[in-house]
Amino acid sequence: MREITSSEFEMEVLEGGKVVLDFYSTECPPCEALAPKFEGLAGLYGNDVKFLKIFRQQNRELAEKLGVSSSPTLLFFDQGKQLSESLSGGIKRRDIIEKLDAMLPESKVKAIKEKIKPEISDFDVLILGAGPGGLTAGLYLCQSKINTVLIDIALPGGQVSTTHEVSNYPGFIEPQRGFMLSHNMSEQTKLCGTSYKVAVDVSSVDLEKKEIVLDEFETVRAKRIIVATGTSPNLCGIPGEKEYKGKGISYCATCDAKYYENKEVIVIGGGNSAVEEADFISKFASKITMVHQFAEFTANKQAVEKLLANPKITPMFMHEPRSIMKADGKMHVEVENLQTKERSTLVSDGIFIFIGMKPNIDLFRNKLELDKWGYIKTNEDMQTSLPGIYAVGDVISKKYRQITTAVADGTIAAIAIAKELN
């Protein structure tokens, strides 16, 4: 695996046979999460497919020419021809493998798969999710001399790592950059001795057996499990959203706002996330139109006052998006006026969607007792309805979801488990 620039693109990619090319950026958590997967697969497939990386920020002209508008983005080429759809955002290892397998003869694929050897590892406690709640639990358990592993499909930090600024975490006089706050939390837990298995795919979860399979070949077993899987962004669910995700539609301002310098963007949403991220995007974009379904923003008053005073931002209240399409390099959003039912089209260079979150429970939805909104119910010790299974952070049923409340959850669960195991 090696890195190239735009000047090498023709020789290394178009004339390079079978190639997978990674457009990455700095200060991009999804890019960092992809890196170890990409490197690991290069070790398996590298004799048959060329693995290349290119720094998107210094090769913007080429990225735009190839339709790359989000980081990371993987493009696949065979004899100079770009293959099928690209992969972008939170890229799964299995999705890359599927693309690579399709590029090779069946005999080659079989030989590569035979190199993958199953593994089994045992721990006292397995923490599924490395956000503030999971990291805090890991820290407390490690200090109690309990053999603990942290597992996450991304890098440690959770949503904090994609938050541009945190101004309400105790102990810091000045606002902290989200990725640095999460980095410091992670380093503290790691230095304590907690084992890390991050940027992995969770293939299956068996809460009764307390076993989790990673990347389809490694089984991790434990005496106790803490579920700290957090939440993920809600989707609009409108035509064009899936097709243009990573190709003009983004859910991460920290990752992609910098690519809209002096450009016009649309922000969909009006809660805390939408208002705070729109303010951050305004440091780059020349104009922001905010599409919100209610008559006023629902974020905290201080953030709203700051937003409304920003001359770059124009609210469009009582409107909802109905469809998204791309034409002539521009993003077109059809919106409906909820009062008159009239529809109109907004044109911009990019779209950011911030319309709330949903709990990440798909792998064990029917195994634990949930509240009516789909969040996990716990008792005062963070125990769930299943013996030996705990849950902390944004994934649990509670009134407030903040970094501080997640940290408190992790503390409580770890102390309760430490008393049990000791």
Characterization of this structure:
By secondary structure, the protein is α/β, with parallel strands linked by helices. The protein folds into three domains: 2-113, Glutaredoxin, CATH 3.40.30.10; 119-232 and 358-421, FAD/NAD(P)-binding domain, CATH 3.50.50; 249-355, FAD/NAD(P)-binding domain (3-Layer(bba) Sandwich). The chain is 27% helix and 27% strand. The chain contains eleven helices and 23 strands. The protein has helices at 9-14, 29-45, 60-65, 93-103, 106-113, 132-143, 178-192, 253-256, 272-281, 301-308, 403-421; strands at 2-4, 18-24, 50-55, 73-78, 81-82, 87-88, 119-128, 148-152, 195-198, 202-206, 211-214, 218-227, 231-233, 249-250, 264-268, 287-291, 313-316, 319-327, 330-337, 343-348, 350-353, 357-359, 389-391. The strands form five sheets. Strands 7, 8, 9, 10, 11, 12 and 23 form a seven-stranded mixed β-sheet that branches. Strands 1, 2, 3, 4, 5 and 6 form a six-stranded mixed β-sheet that branches. Strand 4 (73-78) and strand 5 form a beta hairpin. Helix 6 packs parallel to helix 7 (178-192) and helix 6 (132-143) packs parallel to helix 11 (403-421). It is globular. The chain starts with a strand and ends with a helix. The model has no long low-confidence stretch (mean pLDDT 93).
List the helices and strands and how they pair.
Blueprint: E1 2-4, H1 9-14, E2 18-24, H2 29-45, E3 50-55, H3 60-65, E4 73-78, E5 81-82, E6 87-88, H4 93-103, H5 106-113, E7 119-128, H6 132-143, E8 148-152, H7 178-192, E9 195-198, E10 202-206, E11 211-214, E12 218-227, E13 231-233, E14 249-250, H8 253-256, E15 264-268, H9 272-281, E16 287-291, H10 301-308, E17 313-316, E18 319-327, E19 330-337, E20 343-348, E21 350-353, E22 357-359, E23 389-391, H11 403-421
Parallel strand pairs: 1-3, 2-3, 7-8, 7-12, 8-9, 12-23, 14-21, 15-16, 15-21, 16-17
Antiparallel strand pairs: 2-4, 4-5, 4-6, 10-11, 11-12, 13-22, 18-19, 19-20
